[in-house]
Amino acid sequence: GQQLRLAAHGLQRPGPGRSEQRVLKVFNTSLFAYGQTGAGKSYSMVGYGPNKGIVPITCDELFKTVEGNDDPNMKHCVSFSMLEIYNECVRDLLIKNNPKGGLAVRQNPSIGAFYVQGLTKQVVGSYKAIEAKMEEGTSNRTVASTAMNATSSRAHTVVTITFDQIKKNEVGEETKRTSIINLVDLAGSERAGSTGATGDRLKEGANINKSLSALG
Q1: CA–CA separation, 141 vs 194, rounded Å?
Q2: What is the model's pTM?
């Protein structure tokens, strides 16, 4: 079978404990699952049934760390977003009806960071809350059957976890430090001849391959 490649920016060996440790030290982290269609990217990132993937494992471990905090002057806030890039358009997976043409990608001129305008950012207070949001977002993902994969992802999916650490000093002043985890499940590269794609599936495959080439 095809091997799954995990390319990580800021991670040496992705897995339980590694990303959340970096987040607590106020690092931003991005992890990509990349490989041919049917290689097991979505299974590795999201999981299936009782077999948890990287996203739920990371969220679970992060909240365990937060719950273990014994500093009365430290507060934490965790927010969750989930989007997909389908045929070059950005769609919010936490809402049912997205605007025609997708959401706009903007750049913050003061810090140079890119963001998706109007993307839902849901504050979550527990791993269970994230799990419910993940199920909601996954149900809205664009999938279709091809000759190589019965449930092929037809879009790139990005889960973003924003982690705020709010510290109060001796005089009651608060400072906030923010870390961001991006967990990316890329749609699989594919050859039209192998997948038997025609019509919409062929167009989707062309856009998937184009964006993967740009990423590379």
Answers
A1: 23
A2: 0.76
What residues act catalytically?
38, 40-43, 185, 188
Residue 198: half-sphere exposure toward Cβ, Cα within 13 Å: 1
Confidence tier at 41 by pLDDT (50, 70, 90): confident
Quick check: helix, strand or coil at residue 34? Answer: strand
Q: Give the distance from CA 87 to its chain's centroid.
A: 18
CA distance 165 to 196: 49
Longest distance between any two alpha carbons in the chain, whole Å: 67
- Where does the pLDDT of residue 19 fall: very low under 50, low under 70, confident under 90, or very high at 90 and above? low
Residue predicted with more confidence, 93 or 27 = 93
Nearest-angstrom CA–CA distance, 206 and 199: 11
